[in-house]
Amino acid sequence: MVKPVVIVVGADKGGVGKTTVSRTLLDYFSVNNVQTRAFDTESPRGTLKRFYPGITEIVDMTTTADQMKIFDTLNSGLSVTVIDARAGLLSSALASLRDIGFLDSARSGQITFAVFHILGSSIASLDEIEETATFMSGAKYYLVKNFINDTQFFQWDQATYNSYFHRIKHATELTIPKLNEMAYEQVEIASVPFIDFVANKGRNDEPATNSFVLRGYVRHWLANVWSEFDRINLTELAGAKSATRAGEK
């Protein structure tokens, strides 16, 4: 049986592009033939589900019943579970995972667990890192600087920055570059995965008439994002091998 892989994407601050990162992960696993399912915790109205309706379920992760939907079904045969945690949920979600024994299972090697912590630009994000890091024993911890919204990161004293990051020696930093604003907007309007937009597909795989220029911007951006995922050997984390580039679905 394939060992379950659980990836939580979140932050305690809103507006940092968590769902965008979740979408790039789902596309990356799709083109690398990794079976994946997703949970959208923006209950009752999901954002991630709009782009991936076939593999995404909306849940309220603060309830025991919906926690059971996620974690009682990890051996369903799907190797990767991506959880897009809504703003403000990350710390409480990790505390719940500790309380149900999930983090112990990750430490013992029964489950592969990773957290993609999407950072904001304020000093509060450094405090978030310190709090989240206390749950990361036995987990892969990725600190993600997402420039999708023209964010400027950590414009403060370098010693302050280092004092936080040096405490978390097992964390890995990732950078998500900025995507052309018009290209990003058009993908949002199309409500399709990035890879479908590049392939000029609409909803239900119907042919689309997306701009050649905008498709090119998305293709180039997605390749840069995936090179970051390749750098951290994300497919190996999921028990697969990287094989495909952006637009080669």
From TrEMBL:
It comes from Bradyrhizobium sacchari. This is CobQ/CobB/MinD/ParA family nucleotide binding protein. It comes from the Bacteria. The lineage of its organism: Bacteria, Pseudomonadati, Pseudomonadota, Alphaproteobacteria, Hyphomicrobiales. InterPro entries: P-loop_NTPase.
